[in-house]
Amino acid sequence: MAPALDAAQARIAEAAARAGRRADEVALVAVSKTFPAEAIRAAAACGQRDFGENYVQEARAKQEELAGLGLVWHFIGPIQSNKTRDIAAHFDWVHGIEREKIARRLSEQRPPGLPPLNVCIQVNVSGEASKSGAAPGEVAALAGVVCNLPGLKLRGLMAIPEAGGDPRPRFRLLCELRDALNAGGLALDTLSMGMSQDLESAILEGATIVRVGTAIFGSRPKPRP
User: Fold this and answer.
1) What average pLDDT does range 191-196 have in this prediction?
2) Among 53, 55, 60, 68, whose Cα sits 20 to 30 Å from the Cα of 77?
3) Angle between helices 168-183 and 139-146 (to 10 degrees)
4) Residue 122, domain member (yes or no)
5) Is the pLDDT of residue 222 over 80?
6) Could you report the per-residue pLDDT of 50-106, keeping only the tens digit for each?
7) Which residues have a Cβ under 8 Å from the Cβ of 58 and sit 6 or more positions away?
8) Are 11 and 199 in contact (CB under 8 A)?
9) How far is CA 16 from CA 6, 24, 25, 143, 208, in A?
10) Residue 8 belongs to a domain
């Protein structure tokens, strides 16, 4: 586990240097969905603290098993209405808000003893009908709603470009959307973009969080039914 984590961090540092940025400006989220709790424990023993999941029931079992390790949990992927209560109560970050209804449910269901849930709006930067995310033209209105919800803290934007081709124009679009929102009065500090295959391109275009799974954990097993 340590060599894979070290290699991922080295890629981040090299890309940050190429972009004239510091390596510590880019956080690594280890995407552990479908991997067992033992794999997360091994990564945590090497110093990794941020982990990404997108199956709520699977994530809850891991969270209970790994309680006490001080891990930071990120929910990544589409959110069903019947899952918002568990996500609001047991995660620190959500990377996939694309609808006002889901944002309002997460805000209302965030337990009062917890700090606001850190959230990113997912943007469909490639216009794919099969991909989740708000259209670029809808982001400003959705951000205006989300940033005023008391149980949430809008941190920034997230995207997954289409496979194949050069992802940098898609990442650049996300950065430009973030900058436009900030020029309009918001204070967003997060661009969640870049995965195992394209994290360098994402960092060159301003990523502050990269979400890496296979480069750390290896080939992904099939999810449990």
Assistant:
1) 97
2) 68
3) 50
4) yes
5) no
6) 999 999 999 999 999 999 999 999 999 899 999 999 999 999 999 999 999 999 999
7) 33, 34, 223, 224
8) yes
9) 15, 9, 8, 28, 10
10) yes
Residue 59, classed as helix, strand or coil, is: helix
Tokens of 222: 């099939």
Task: Report the CATH number at residue 115.
Answer: 3.20.20.10
Q: Point out the least confidently predicted range of 21-25, 178-182, 189-193, 219-223.
A: 219-223
Neighbours of 33 (CB within 10 A): 20
For the ranges 122-126, 130-134, 148-152, 171-175, the lowest mean pLDDT is seen at 130-134
Q: What is the pLDDT of residue 128?
A: 77
List 156's β-bridge partners, or say none. Answer: 120, 190
Distance CA 29, CA 47 (A): 12
Assessment of whether the complete model's pTM goes beyond 0.85: yes
**Domains contained in the chain, number:** 1
Q: Does residue 224 sit within a domain?
A: no
Domain that holds residue 177: 2-217
Whether the Cβ atoms of residue 134 and residue 98 lie closer than 8 Å to each other:
yes
Q: Look at residues 22, 25, 35 and name the one whose alpha carbon lies nearest to residue 209.
A: 25
Contact of 43 with 64, CB cutoff 8 Å: no
For residue 13, give the amino acid letter: A
